[in-house]
């Protein structure tokens, strides 16, 4: 059976109009791509003003509001770009120099960007990071860490490209640690960025903090596990990247169930932050950076 379909010139015109409407409707209003109808008089510059009476907090004020549909900010602390308001308050708890940037998305989708540097002279006395060298960016950073905290010596820590990477096989393992000064009764939050490009198998990765000095003759477990990646508990087998408090698992097996990374100091003085792990097949390993331990009260 033959079926003939006749398409008139009016049908072709109608199809074309529908296609144009669909293409226009599918373009997001705050697209980062100029659609030819964008405003061209956008000023993306902004001011930075310290918040009165509060340490390490700043107000970012965008200069142009007319014809701007979205404001995107990056505060230079490694957390990346986020969608915010014209007037945005930020908190930078650590001393250092930060590159702040503002991207204004105009009507029509064109983008305009401005950036400036801000120097924070002192860390916040309560929330400043007490870990030294947590970015593994320089030889001085790496020198803050000592190998130890586990009786196994078959694993390998490699320091390169701003990361510390643990690899192991045959159920080998190894740890690193550093001394931190803590205050009795104070609660601290530990976290770090962790990643694995291929995932791991039969692997454990654990965080501890206690008052005894770690050694190379036994597994450190003072205070109990505070955070963990454990393939037997269901995480780490696939590639991952993110904060350990988010991508970790086995929350019922840590010292403060469902509160990963929480540490409460029972004495004032020197404690030891220990990061240790190992496995049967860690493939490309588990990499860490941006290690933090911050007061929360």
Question: Which properties best describe this structure?
Answer:
43% strand, mainly beta, 18 strands, globular, 8% helix, Immunoglobulin-like, signal, disordered N terminus, 6-stranded antiparallel β-sheet, 2 domains, 3 helices, Jelly Rolls, 297 residues
How would you classify the helix and strand content by structural class? Answer: mainly beta
Low-confidence parts lasting 5 or more residues at pLDDT below 50?
A: 1-34
Q: What would CATH call the architecture of the largest domain?
A: Sandwich
Tally of helical segments: 3
Helix-strand topology string: HEEEEEEEHEEEEEEEEHEEE
Most strands sheet = 6 strands, antiparallel
* Number of individual domains: 2
Q: Examine the coordinates and then state which fold CATH places here, giving the name of the CATH topology of the largest domain.
A: Jelly Rolls
- The total beta strand count reads 18
What is the oligomeric state here?
single chain
CATH class term of the largest domain: Mainly Beta
Radius of gyration: 26 Å
Overall mean pLDDT stands at 87
Protein name: PKD domain-containing protein
InterPro entries: PKD_dom_sf
Organism: Yeosuana aromativorans
Keywords: Signal
């Amino acid at each position: 059976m033959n079926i003939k379909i006749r398409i008139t010139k009016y049908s072709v015109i109608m199809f074309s109009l529908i296609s144009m409407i669909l293409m226009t409707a599918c373009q997001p209003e705050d697209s980062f791509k100029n659609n030819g109808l964008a405003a061209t008089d956008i000023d993306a510059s902004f001011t930075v003003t310290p918040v009165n009476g509060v340490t390490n907090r700043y107000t970012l004020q965008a200069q142009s509001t007319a014809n701007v549909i979205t404001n995107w900010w990056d505060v230079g602390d490694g957390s990346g770009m986020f969608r915010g308001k014209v007037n945005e308050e930020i908190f930078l708890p650590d001393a250092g120099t930060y590159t702040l940037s503002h991207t204004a998305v105009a009507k029509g989708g064109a983008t305009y960007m401005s950036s400036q540097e801000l120097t924070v002279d002192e860390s916040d006395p309560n929330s400043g990071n007490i870990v030294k060298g947590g970015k593994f960016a320089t030889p001085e950073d790496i020198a803050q860490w000592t190998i130890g905290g586990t009786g196994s010596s078959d694993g390998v820590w490699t320091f390169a490209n701003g990361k510390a990477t643990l690899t192991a096989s045959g159920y080998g393992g190894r740890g690193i640690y550093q001394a931190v000064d803590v205050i009795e009764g104070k609660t601290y939050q530990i976290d770090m960025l962790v990643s694995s490009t291929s995932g791991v198998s039969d692997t454990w990765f654990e965080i501890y903090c206690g008052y005894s000095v770690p050694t190379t003759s036994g597994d450190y477990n003072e205070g109990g596990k505070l955070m963990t990646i454990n393939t037997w508990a269901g995480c780490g087998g696939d590639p991952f990247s993110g904060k350990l408090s988010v991508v970790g698992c086995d929350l019922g097996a840590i010292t403060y169930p469902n509160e990963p990374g929480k540490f409460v100091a029972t004495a004032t003085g020197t404690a030891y932050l220990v990061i240790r792990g190992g496995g049967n097949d860690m493939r490309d390993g588990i990499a860490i950076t941006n290690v933090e331990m911050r007061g929360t009260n």
